[in-house]
Design brief:
Elements lengths: L1 E6 L3 H12 L4 E8 L2 H9 L6 E5 L5 H11 L3 E4 L6 H11 L2 E4 L14 H4 L2 H7 L2 E4 L7 H12 L3 E11 L13 H9 L2 E5 L2 E5 L5 E6 L3 E8 L3 H8 L5 E7 L2 H12 L8 E3 L2 E3 L1 H8 L13 E12 L2 E12 H8 L3 H18 L7 E4 L5 H11 L4 E4 L6
Parallel strand pairs: 1-2, 1-4, 2-3, 4-5, 5-6, 6-17, 7-12
Antiparallel strand pairs: 7-15, 8-9, 8-12, 10-11, 11-12, 13-14, 15-16, 16-18
Helix pairs in contact: 1-13, 3-4, 7-14, 13-14
Pfam families: Sacchrp_dh_C, Sacchrp_dh_NADP
Protein name: Saccharopine dehydrogenase family protein
Organism: Parabacteroides acidifaciens
């Protein structure tokens, strides 16, 4: 039905490409491209049912990207590279004339600040070109936006309070490791917290607001208020929301390591001179930490991610909790990757599938919650991320 080109060769890409290959009736031709072709070749070698082409490309180089697009002629480019590269890839898509999908919004290389405004600015250019750009099609952002849209469509007349809760109750048996790109992960966690309330954004010191929350099949876990990108789009697209927050769990050992990393300067994103050459401390740290893509084999436990929503239905207050629990071990057995990669890679494939089928396809730049949530929710159940609903329960928040 369509030709898809995936950029990036990390853990999320491993899952997405393997799941794309499992849906070969929709994806007729597949290519995975990255700065390091050997990583792409490794992914392709594990796929037996269809041939996956591979290529080397610098995702910061628009001309290189356009040349690759001209050679492969994709119908959709799935960007699973670094957030710094989003705009370069979107520029290349416009230059060639191909639609676009990503899982994380743009942030500048020299500042730990991510927001959608840079990508939303491309809306008219994609409209004029008749191309679709789907933003934030992972789990959070991604599934959490679809959950919210589904709740608004089926269960609420008015959503008033939204809390996105993200728990990783897994154990990778490493002293310290991040579940996705360490550079992006640490930048995200160490910035100031931010949440939306009564029409304005309020900031907190990093990880200063926290409380225990109970997660299904997991139990109580200390959960920390952070800023996360989908809050920006969800408060825009659901203007009845009075308060929106994002919570994530961290173990004390992880937080201790993180505090040491910050205190000794290894979380710095500005370049320093070392032995006569420039290095960025956090990029060096990334090189010595465990590769997130290699954590799956010994990973136990599960993730639990969902939306806790309070609002009005038929004039009465309603509480609603929709969530997914994902086993790290089950994810590894299916794709060779751990659960955090799985929960991001599967939704990316689903968004790409719905685009190829013409279900999620309209000119412009869109966040996932702006599409019909029903076909996506159906695919989640069929593709390995089944969801569950609880009504009129204590949301704890």
């Amino acid at each position: 039905m369509g030709r898809v080109l995936v950029i990036g060769a990390g853990g999320v890409s491993t899952v997405a490409v393997k799941k794309i290959a499992m849906n070969a009736d929709v994806f007729t031709d597949i290519m995975v491209a990255s700065r390091t072709k050997s990583k792409c070749d490794k992914i392709a070698a594990d796929i037996k049912n269809v041939k996956v082409q591979t290529a080397q490309v610098d995702a910061d180089n628009v001309e290189e990207l356009v040349a690759l697009f001209n050679a492969f002629k994709p119908d959709l480019v799935v960007n699973l590279a670094l957030p710094y590269q989003d705009l370069h890839i979107m520029d290349a898509c416009l230059a060639y004339g191909v639609s676009y999908l990503d899982t994380a919004n743009y942030e500048p290389l020299d500042e730990a600040k991510y927001q959608y405004s840079w990508q939303w600015a491309y809306k008219k250019r994609f409209e004029d070109a008749g191309l679709t750009a789907i933003l934030g099609c992972g789990f959070d952002p991604g599934v959490t936006g679809v959950y919210t849209a589904y709740a608004a469509k089926h269960h609420f007349d008015e959503i008033q309070y939204l809390d996105i809760v993200d728990c990783n109750a897994g154990d990778h048996h490493k002293a310290f490791a991040t579940n996705f790109n360490p550079e992006i992960n640490i930048r995200e966690i160490t910035q100031r917290g931010k949440y939306y309330e009564d029409g304005e954004w309020k900031e907190t010191d990093p990880l200063s607001v926290h409380k225990p929350l109970n997660y299904p099949n997991v139990g109580p876990k200390e959960s920390y208020l952070m800023y996360h990108e989908e809050l920006e789009s969800l408060t825009k697209n659901f203007p009845t929301i009075k308060r929106a927050r994002f919570w994530m769990t961290f173990g004390q050992e992880y937080l201790t390591h993180l505090r040491v990393i910050q205190n000794i300067g290894m979380a710095r994103i500005d370049p320093i001179m070392y032995n006569g050459q420039e290095i960025v401390p956090i990029q060096f740290l990334k090189a010595v930490l465990p590769n997130p893509g290699d954590l799956g084999e010994n990973y136990t436990g599960e993730t639990s991610i969902g939306c806790r929503i309070r609002g009005i239905k038929d004039g009465k207050e309603l509480t609603y909790y929709v969530y997914n629990n994902c086993s790290h071990h089950a994810a590894y057995l299916e794709t060779g990757a751990q659960g955090v990669s799985y929960t991001t890679g599967v939704p990316a494939m689903i968004g790409a599938k719905l685009f190829m089928q013409g279900v999620w396809k309209k000119p412009g730049v869109w966040n996932v919650e702006e599409f019909d949530p029903d076909p996506f929710m159906k695919e989640l159940n069929e593709q390995g991320l089944p969801w569950h609903e609880l009504f009129n329960v204590d949301l704890e928040l």
